[in-house]
Amino acid sequence: MSGFKLVGIAGSFNRPSKTLALVRHVAERASVRYGFSSKTYDLHDLGPSLGRALWRKDLDEQARRVVDEIVRADVLIIGSPTYKGSYPGLFKHLIDLIDPQELRAKPIIITATGGGDRHALMVEHQLRPLFGFFMAHTLPTAVYASDRDFADYAVSSDALSNRIGEVVGELSAFFPEARPAVAAAE
């Protein structure tokens, strides 16, 4: 193990969820390649206090634990379902509870899912500027997946798998010493 921690957060409540499936898939590939320990969460894991919290201190213990995991991670995978061209409000509320300094310079893989190609630019027009405000390092390759990229809530598209491989490879700029033999085998 590399000692680095990866946390994935899917901005969805639905289970099963294509967004959560995508975040988990990316997390697994990055963890295998770099030896990260990893956890993935969705909004359901934060529980009901998320919607009632005006401030982070208002979160219950379960939600605070997840937020603490997010801000202590060495690398994040952010995934959002796309609704009417943007991320859901409760996902944004979660991000609003994080102090901008807590994500500063953190490498972030941004991903999103949607019903079709109309939403593909959401990663560039919504997620990248959001995490730019936090001065995080969003990796150059963003991953968008539509319904056709999944079979039974699992990544099934070769094009999507290749794009995931590209962004996972981009993490080597931050973690070059982690598991080089595995990286060469991919």
From TrEMBL:
Signal peptide: none annotated. Residues 5-148 form the NADPH-dependent FMN reductase-like domain. It is an enzyme of class 1 (oxidoreductase). Keywords: Flavoprotein, FMN, Oxidoreductase, Plasmid. Pfam families: FMN_red (PF03358). Its EC number is 1.5.1.38. It comes from the Bacteria. One of its GO terms (molecular function) is FMN reductase (NADPH) activity. Belongs to the SsuE family. NCBIfam families: FMN_reduc_MsuE. This is FMN reductase. It comes from Rhizobium phaseoli.
